[in-house]
């Protein structure tokens, strides 16, 4: 049988012509991003997929491309509106044109994107996470914890190079009241896909030393708002909600709270705001101790004045009674006096013991006592050294002990 044959190129060219003629307009489509990658020229290549109702099986797939001049604008617009990095696994609403190449086949070229569609999906996912935490009975567990007074032993989860971490430490160390804080950094990646695992690992390390801390601070600053999606994680939220220490967040954003913010004991906007919160906490504690001391002094003086007046009244009342009666009453009066003195002394001793306990607690956190426990303070000039990265070879450092100082040269 004679057959008229055409080449593969000719067939593909015919298909291209049909598609170009029949589908020459732009289409808005809903899809999920997959395998997103960018080359050195700034072009973005990816796949668009659609899954079935079970969200397990792929029922449609198409190659996609976003040319560099478009991708540069769309990426910035999308991330500023959604607070999320343009990456794989996103539900998106995109405007595309259909293209067909004789070699590379069928593909979709992206011209526009609607961030509000993705935002709606984010809100939905966030609501599902919060609902799951509530059903498990853990949503408000961390908020129900009592924050210590004073809370001055702080475990910090942050990147050691983050500007927010430095701002937080400077705010605490430079407080005008001279309050002392003990802080320890548990380094973690604070942006990107590894954020969730890094923070959970840091929480695990803190959990092993729970008795050494009053609270956990999770802070970041200077990062892109597009990295905040890492804090809308179920696993991270579940770990924080059930953590035995109060968690305070300051991840540096103004938009709606992340899931982590919602489950945390306290949410502050920035690392500096977290430091201000902790300073208010210890300042309020100091004020309460001063008020207790003033109250003890006032009540003691008041009680002594009242009892003295009672004794004076009793003495005057019975002055006219016969000598024998007077003697008997004086004996009773003496007994009453002794009881009153004992009662007053007991009250004074109890209040004095309470005051001493409060003063001792404050004294325990003084720098001198901390040094007496075996800790040392390392200085380079007048600057406190917290990490070996702050000193250089040949630099003179001073180690301060409770009973003196020594100088050393870094080798």
From TrEMBL:
CDD domains membership? ExoVII_LU_OBF (cd04489)
Q: Which domain of life is it from?
A: Bacteria
Give any GO molecular function from the UniProt entry. Answer: exodeoxyribonuclease VII activity
Catalysed transformations (reactions) = Exonucleolytic cleavage in either 5'- to 3'- or 3'- to 5'-direction to yield nucleoside 5'-phosphates
Q: What class of enzyme is it?
A: hydrolase
Alphabetized UniProt keyword annotations: Cytoplasm, Exonuclease, Hydrolase, Nuclease
Nuclease: is it a keyword of this entry?
Answer: yes
Keyword Cytoplasm appears in the UniProt entry: yes
Task: State any GO BP term from the record.
Answer: DNA catabolic process
Q: Name one Pfam family in it.
A: Exonuc_VII_L
Q: Name one GO cellular component term.
A: cytoplasm
Q: For the Exonuclease VII large subunit C-terminal domain, which residue ranges apply?
A: 141-355
Location in the cell: Cytoplasm
Domain named OB-fold nucleic acid binding: residues: 7-113
Any transmembrane segments, and where?
A: none
Enzyme Commission number: 3.1.11.6
Its family? Answer: Belongs to the XseA family.
What is this protein called in UniProt? Exodeoxyribonuclease 7 large subunit
Upper lineage: Bacteria, Pseudomonadati, Bacteroidota, Bacteroidia, Bacteroidales
């Amino acid at each position: 049988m004679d057959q008229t044959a055409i080449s593969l190129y000719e067939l593909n060219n015919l298909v291209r012509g049909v598609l170009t003629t029949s589908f020459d307009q732009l289409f808005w489509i809903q899809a999920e991003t997959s395998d997103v990658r960018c080359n050195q020229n700034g072009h973005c290549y990816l796949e668009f997929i659609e899954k079935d109702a079970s969200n397990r099986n792929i029922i449609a797939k198409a190659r996609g491309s976003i040319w560099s001049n478009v991708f540069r604008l769309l990426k910035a617009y999308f991330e500023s509106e959604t607070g999320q990095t343009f990456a794989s696994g996103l539900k998106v609403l995109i405007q595309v044109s259909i293209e067909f190449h004789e070699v590379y086949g069928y593909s979709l070229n992206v011209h526009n994107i609607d961030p509000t569609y993705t935002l709606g999906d984010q809100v939905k996912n966030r609501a599902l996470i919060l609902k799951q935490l509530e059903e498990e009975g853990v949503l408000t567990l961390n908020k129900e914890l009592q924050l210590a007074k004073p809370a001055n032993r702080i475990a910090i989860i942050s990147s050691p190079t983050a500007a927010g971490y430095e701002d937080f430490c400077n705010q605490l160390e430079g407080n005008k009241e001279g309050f002392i804080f003990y802080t320890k950094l548990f380094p973690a990646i604070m942006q990107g896909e590894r954020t969730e695992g890094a923070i959970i690992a840091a929480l695990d390390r803190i959990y092993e030393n729970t008795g050494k801390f009053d609270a956990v601070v999770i802070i970041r600053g200077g990062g892109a708002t597009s990295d905040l999606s890492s804090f809308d994680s179920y696993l991270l939220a579940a770990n924080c909600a059930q953590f035995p220490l109060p968690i305070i967040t300051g991840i540096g954003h103004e938009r709606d709270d992340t899931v982590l913010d919602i489950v945390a004991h306290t949410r502050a906007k920035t690392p500096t705001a977290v430091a201000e919160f902790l300073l208010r906490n210890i300042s309020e504690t100091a004020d309460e101790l001063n008020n207790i001391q003033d109250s003890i002094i006032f009540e003691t003086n008041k009680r002594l004045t009242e009892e003295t007046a009672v004794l004076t009244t009793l003495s005057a009342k019975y002055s006219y009674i016969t000598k024998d009666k007077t003697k008997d009453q004086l004996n009773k009066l003496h007994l009453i006096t002794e009881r009153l003195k004992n009662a007053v002394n007991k009250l004074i001793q109890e209040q004095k013991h309470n005051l001493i306990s409060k003063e001792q607690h404050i004294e325990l956190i003084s720098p001198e006592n901390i040094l007496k426990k075996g800790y040392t303070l390392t200085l380079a000039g007048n600057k406190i050294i917290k990490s070996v990265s702050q000193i250089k070879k040949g630099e003179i450092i001073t180690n301060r002990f409770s009973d003196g100082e020594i100088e050393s040269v870094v080798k």
